[in-house]
Amino acid sequence: MLLWLFGPPAAGKTSVAREIARSHPGFAHLDTDQIGLCYPAPDDDQANHGVKSAGLAALWPNFRDAGARGLVISGNLLTADDFARYRVDGTPITLCRLRAEPEVHRARFLRRGRFTDLVDRCLEEAAALDRTDFADHTVDTTHLSTADSAALVLERTGFAR
Asked: What is the pLDDT of residue 161?
């Protein structure tokens, strides 16, 4: 079982994924941002999806062999074409997009205190995802805590059942 949480920066992907893995023994968490830190990225793959896809394909069997029943993946995807690059030994991946209202999203991003010059690009990314939603499920985290967001993700996706 693979569950991918995606959305723009500050959507809550990593926090919600960690909460799911922490509160559900047997579920692991993998952040694609961490396994994609390989630069310079190719000109035709600035987000390093090729590196991330290869890393995910190599790591999932290790998690499974170590006893994980499922893997919660956190990482951004901008398009369905981005996602099409990921194949993991035939294991289906459920996509769940996390979103928030723009004013809440802006505040979350700015609380990070770094890269504040990128907030407009982050909000543009969020708006683009709202227009072209290709997820299996979408969870609005605007007024939810991390724990409540995780619970709603699990309820909507049926992941931890």
From this structure: 75
